[in-house]
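Re: beginner question about structure tokens

> Can someone show what the tokenized structure looks like for a real chain? I only ever see the sequence side.

Sure, here's an example I had lying around. Input first:
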Amino acid sequence: MAEKTFQMLTVLLFAAFVINADAQDTISINVHEQVTLSCPLDLRACGRLHSVKWYRGADGRNRIAVYSDDLKVKNTEGPQQERLSIVHTTGGDVTELRLSATQISDEDLYTCEGTFIAPEDNCESVTTIQLNILVAPTKVVLADENGDTLPHNSALGPLREGAQLLLFCEAFDGRPAPKITWRQGERNLKGSDNIAEHDGVFTSRSELSLTLSREHLNAKIDCIVESPALKRMRTESVILDLQVRPTKISVTGVQHHVVQGTRVTLQCIVQGARPAANVTWYNSTRP
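And the corresponding structure tokens:
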């Protein structure tokens, strides 16, 4: 008879763990920090508390902590045991599970289940929390097509109008994968992105290809890195030292035919060139 009773209790316990993903809370915390997971207890609808159990994982079977004032139990279990602690005041309507020195491996779904002596039908006894561990990128690097690092706000060039320019921006070892955006002034530029994962962290790499034109004269190109782990976005920038051809060349000073032996003054006007054009005069083929 005792064996049958134990089997029924086990079935009822696991039946309580039908997790509603829409109802779960989400907490994001930077790695190495302490996090507190709160489990509210509706004592008005549920009555007197018997025990609170914490589980880890989507299946709700990996118990990591248990508290019971009636049984004088306050235990933590599993690999996280030394970093876990339970905080509960007798008669209180909240139980807290504190996890110190968080690690990437702590990211998971955590479930709290309250067991009550005589609960009402409307007693909600299960709380689920998705814990996300954040890691700030260790560094952001902006480089040219040869892989040479470009110092922040440095000048790149001289570059030629019509040439193809390749820039690379990398954000290393972040979690989740850092987001990279390219920008020229207020205009976003489209890059080609790649993400690599190792040991639970991600390195994001983006390649920007530009066909240089007059619109890139003295342009500032920004690589902007965003991550929930960063208090503010990080930016690396380069200024393009672009050389462009003249847009117009004109010669003035003679409006009509001139008589042999007459002194005339000619002007050659070169517009739109960068750097300033060098002008050489020729008489036929002779300078």
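Each token stands for a local structural state, so reading them left to right follows the chain. Residues 2-15 form the longest helix (14 residues).
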